[in-house]
């Protein structure tokens, strides 16, 4: 029995130092820093060019503000894949653009209405619900008219916005890449 007790290791507490040193913690980073800035910096570090990232971000924003809600993710992936853009950067910009897409929806529809000289859509909730219950197919067709009118206006704006945004982002990303080369982390 003495053998069994002797083979058990003694549990001791670690010695308490006179001066306990607490390791410094990293500062907390915000959601924007961790979900947007850090992935873009990582993409620059692993070899993405500032030009490619600028175009990827610009395309993501342009597609992210289109008037067809729910279409942006697949459309952005398809365009980024076809033009060999960075999928991660385009999706980051696309998803950041969602609040802008919601804010611009009425503007796209109104601009399409002006461009194509159509009457205003019945956007009153009660009228729209009544029409959907009584004539669902014709109501969907009627709403699609305003939707594609807004889509045409968006295409016109996107063809101008995308190169301008890419041109504005390129020098910023180039400076960021130079700063990363000067101070690697």
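Sequence proposed for the structure above (185 residues):
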């Amino acid at each position: 029995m003495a053998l069994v007790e002797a083979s058990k290791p003694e549990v001791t507490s670690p010695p308490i130092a006179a001066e306990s040193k607490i390791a410094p913690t990293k500062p907390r980073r915000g959601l924007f820093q961790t979900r947007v800035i850090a992935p873009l910096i990582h993409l620059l570090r692993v070899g993405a060019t500032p030009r490619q990232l600028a175009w990827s971000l610009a395309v993501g924003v342009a597609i992210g503000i289109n008037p067809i809600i729910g279409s942006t993710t697949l459309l952005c992936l398809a365009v980024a894949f076809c033009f060999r853009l960075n999928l991660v950067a385009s999706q980051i910009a696309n998803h950041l653009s969602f609040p802008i897409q919601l804010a611009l929806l009425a503007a796209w529809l109104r601009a399409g209405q002006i461009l194509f000289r159509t009457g205003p859509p019945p956007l009153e909730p009660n009228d729209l619900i009544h029409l959907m219950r009584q004539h669902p197919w014709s109501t969907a067709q009627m709403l699609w008219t305003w939707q594609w009118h807004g889509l045409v206006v968006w295409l016109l704006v996107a063809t101008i916005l995308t190169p301008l945004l890419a041109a504005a982002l390129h020098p910023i990303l180039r400076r960021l890449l130079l700063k990363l080369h000067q101070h690697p982390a």
